[in-house]
Amino acid sequence: MSDVKTTTLPATAYDADFYAWTQDQAARLRDLRPNALDWGNLAEEIESLGRSQKKLIRNHLVVLLAHLLKWAHQPDKRTNSWRGSIQGARDEIADELRDSPSLKRYPGQELARQYRLALLHASGETELPIDVFPETCPFTIDQVLDPDFWPEPESE
Fold it and tell me: How far is the C-alpha of 146 from the C-alpha of 44, rounded, in Å?
């Protein structure tokens, strides 16, 4: 009679089919078969998940900052799309921070770096020269993430 805990599934190669590998590794974890696990790649993928969360926060921060700049510098062109983008990015960042409280300080640590990218986006999307926008981020991270913060129009 075969013991379910020791029955071996055919191994799925990490490089051949990543999704199948993830499902296979998850099944092996659930079946408590540590000797059947691909430990090296499994550890690397778990680390990668953490990097993915950081990347997601950075991407949403760039979009959020670019739209806040557009909001402040083109008040006559404000749209519900911009409002939705701002609210959506804030919600996505808040969700990530709720899921991973250890990343609470990360948006603030990335603010200056992501602002530089947001400047390029805002300038490109508005067709305004980049020097129209402040050289450094005019918002605090608390303002950026505050669902009630909407920048006033910049005086030209």
Answer: 34
Q: How far apart are CA 99 and CA 14, in angstroms?
A: 27
Q: What is the pLDDT of residues 138-150, one digit of tens each?
A: 999 999 999 999 9
The helix (run of H) or strand (run of E) holding residue 132 is: none
pLDDT digits (tens, 9 = 90+) for 34-84: 888 888 888 788 778 778 889 999 999 999 999 999 999 999 999 999 999
Phi-psi region for residue 127, left (φ > 0), alpha (ψ -120 to 50) or beta? left
Structural domain spans, the chain: 51-145
Q: Please state the pTM of the whole predicted model.
A: 0.76
Tokens of 7: 């029955």
